[in-house]
């Protein structure tokens, strides 16, 4: 399971970089082509939001790749029956949990407020265009956005916690001590 999740992490990181680069290029091309048209303000707002969160996106990418490397190393050690497998799995788990907790803090302190500012600015653009949405809808968007942003790191905490619990059980340690290389 370690190796599969590690591979998914690497693939996800590559996709994240590609989509971030592609979205920046697409937004820039749209902004360059629109000039003063009605949608240009929205495109600029989206570019500003993306740029504001770029450093957190890069941190998240680096964290994902680090976690992927650690879990793959632990998975290979487990497959080979190495005594070091539990230490490597514990290292993966502690680093993963720590980075995910840090990401949760960053979401609460930086990402969610920036997203709410984006939603407020978008609502002003819609209002000036005569297509304002009800205030309640804006509140629902903000709440759903924050919950959605928090769910990914929260759900992804399950596996490293289970790894700590399951691989540190006495029978696993005893088996690796007796049969491991």
* Model regions low in confidence, pLDDT < 50 over at least 5 residues: none
User: What's the total helix number?
Assistant: 7
> What would the average pLDDT be, to the nearest integer?
86
Radius of gyration: 22 Å
The first-to-last residue Cα distance is 21 Å
Element-level helix/strand string: HHHHHHH
Total beta strand runs = 0
Instruction: Using the alpha-carbon principal axes, give the shape.
Output: elongated
Beta fraction of the residues? under 5%
What profile does the largest beta sheet have?
none
Instruction: Briefly note the structural class of the backbone.
Output: mainly alpha
State the helicity in percent bands.
Answer: over 70%
Structure summary:
With 181 residues, this protein is mainly alpha-helical. It has helices spanning 2-34, 40-52, 54-79, 85-128, 135-155, 158-167, 170-179.
How would you sum up this structure, described in words?
The chain is mainly alpha-helical and 181 residues long. The chain is elongated and about 75 Å long. The model has no long low-confidence stretch (mean pLDDT 86).
Helices and strands, with pairings:
Layout: H1 2-34, H2 40-52, H3 54-79, H4 85-128, H5 135-155, H6 158-167, H7 170-179
Keywords, please?
single chain; 181 residues; mainly alpha; 87% helix
């Amino acid at each position: 399971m370690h190796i599969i999740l590690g591979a998914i992490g690497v693939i996800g990181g590559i996709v994240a970089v590609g989509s971030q680069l592609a979205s920046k290029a697409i937004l820039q091309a749209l902004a360059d082509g629109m000039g003063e048209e009605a949608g240009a303000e929205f495109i600029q707002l989206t570019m500003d939001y993306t740029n504001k969160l770029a450093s957190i996106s890069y941190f998240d990418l680096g964290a994902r790749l680090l976690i992927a490397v650690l879990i793959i190393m632990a998975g290979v050690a487990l497959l080979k029956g190495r005594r070091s497998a539990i230490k490597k799995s514990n290292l993966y788990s502690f680093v993963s949990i720590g980075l995910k907790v840090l990401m949760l803090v960053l979401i609460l302190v930086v990402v969610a407020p920036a997203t709410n500012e984006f939603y407020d600015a978008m609502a002003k653009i819609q209002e000036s265009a005569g297509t304002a949405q009800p205030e309640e809808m804006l509140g629902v968007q903000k709440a759903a956005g924050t919950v959605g942003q928090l769910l990914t790191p929260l759900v992804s905490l399950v596996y490293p916690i289970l790894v700590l619990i399951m691989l540190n059980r006495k029978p696993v340690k005893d088996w690796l001590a007796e049969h491991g290389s």
